[in-house]
């Protein structure tokens, strides 16, 4: 990872005796993150968990970080204000960096509406370790799915700063994969995610 460096608090990084490449050798595959981004109910969680299931069955060490779950613990103190959304993704980025250093294939399902935040996470990792998957789905289709009932609440004004309705969503400009979840079913989308991972020779 990083060489021994001191930060302003005189905290020095301790380089261990086992490195990422050693861990990758043990796992039999590389560490990387498959970063899903898209509106609420676009299908990020559904597709990420299906892809994880397939990878797990193939013996790949995986972990899914899901937006709602992270907000129950690590980020339970954060709101959905612009400032807190930025902090949410910053913390997640740092956590993922550790998992990738641990040689895992991490799949993430966060709306992550801001391009700059996604760029920052990418910049924490090495070339080829961050694959961005844009789950594209029109807000009307997401709102019609509304399996969690949150679009209805947002439209009723009960949820402020709701991405796609009252808060912006910045689509990726150059994603590694686009899934148009209004045309393509979830199992087929998950299969294409696995194909992407194979093409990049991560597994
Ligand atoms: N092609 C598709 N891909 C993913 N989800 C789909 C698709 N078509 C319908 N759905 C449904 O849409 C909903 C997506 O919800 P979820 O995966 O929780 O979205 P997100 O994590 O993006 O908020 C689920 O109820 C899922 O069954
Ligand atoms: Mg989700």
Separation of the first and last Cα atoms = 21 Å
CATH class of the domain at 30-137 and 168-197: Alpha Beta
- Morphology: globular
Instruction: Output the number of helix runs.
Output: 8
Q: What's the architecture of the domain at 30-137 and 168-197 in CATH terms? A: 3-Layer(aba) Sandwich
Describe the protein in words.
The protein has 203 residues and is α/β, with parallel strands linked by helices. The protein has a domain at 30-137 and 168-197: P-loop containing nucleotide triphosphate hydrolases (Rossmann fold, 3-Layer(aba) Sandwich), CATH 3.40.50. 41% of the residues lie in helices and 13% in strands. The protein has eight helices and five strands, in the order αβαβααβαβααβα. The chain has helices at 20-27, 44-57, 67-70, 82-101, 115-124, 139-145, 150-155, 186-199, and strands spanning 32-37, 62-66, 105-109, 130-136, 177-180. Strands 2-3-1-4-5 form a five-stranded parallel sheet, sandwiched between helices. Helix 2 (44-57) packs across helix 8 (186-199) and helix 4 packs parallel to helix 5. Bound molecules: adenosine-5'-diphosphate (ADP) and magnesium ion. Residues 38, 40-47, 109, 145, 147, 181, 184-186, 189 line the site of adenosine-5'-diphosphate (ADP). Adenosine-5'-diphosphate is lined by residues 38, 40-47, 109, 145, 147, 181, 184-186, 189.
